[in-house]
């Protein structure tokens, strides 16, 4: 066996077979050129090289040479150092972007992927069979459907407390309209995000959420009430439709955005040295601008579906306020939020006995008592014991973090001060 053949590629072996047939006059040059997909003049050159050098004449002369486009060793060393240090944990795509933006090193993501695999910094994900879901076409206009969700995660990688990110993303464009950091996924956090969205863009036609208790009453045997949650009543007052998804896959746009945010946003905040909710919230607009510039697409129809908010921000605060009703006692008192309140009047106030009043709880923590078209002054004079609040899987982390923080403060206060050596 010719050892030269073993060093040939598959294409070169096929070329050798055809060239031998032409040399032995079993095949014409024209038919040989057609089989190899080259011109007759190139076939003549191959036959001439074969007669002069044998099998080696058909082997590419570029084999064994260093490519002029090969990455220089010093650049390769610098990239390896950055990947193992400042950009540790970055995927190939994000690492390629940041190397170009921050280090002025232009390299393709596939080159980085190969280098990370070689260095043991990246493990290719195993592909597994996934359930196939029918793809739903994007909505046509910006503001027709806003997908919303909360993502509890270690956003600060241990530099700060775990928290939840409330995500609002437009279905038609994939554009982030608001990011809101909160200690837990609560009604107030969603209302703050909704307020920012309405002031910035207007009222969307519909919100698309999961079936969390914030968005719908899940008790099957609920015999009282209007069947709506506090958030549901707010969106109803804003004339926004609230749609609940049956499965996480149904609202796949926001679910996929959560996965990308847990990768990109975490690493952007690491590079920016952010380790707290307040700083992260200040960074959110800058990150949303970067996200929308890279991932957002143009809607099929240019006319937006948002309806502008023409009233004042104070009027929006009133719409967003959580409302409940109370009946005043003969002493003009009522109970709310673990306190007993007394309504103040200029006269005897007999007309208010047994009156049904509305309590407006604003997001800034204040409360107003409304009776018909006027606001009543009141004061709290007694604190009532409250039962412990129930937690779910999305708020338990914030509750435990508060317990741990309280224990740490208590231990610090009870620890005796160290004795000083007066010498």
Provide a descriptive summary of the structure in words.
With 423 residues, the chain is α+β, with helices and mostly antiparallel strands. It folds into four domains: 3-58; 73-119; 145-218 and 225-295, Ribonuclease H-like superfamily/Ribonuclease H (Nucleotidyltransferase, domain 5); 321-383, no CATH class. The protein has helices at 3-6, 10-23, 29-36, 40-53, 73-84, 92-102, 109-119, 187-201, 230-237, 252-272, 277-295, 313-320, 396-414, and strands at 145-153, 163-170, 176-182, 206-209, 241-244, 322-327, 333-336, 339-344, 356-361, 367-371, 374-383. The strands form two sheets. Strands 6-9-10-11-8-7 form a six-stranded antiparallel β-sheet. The radius of gyration is 34 Å and the shape is elongated. The protein starts with a helix and ends in a 9-residue tail after the last helix.
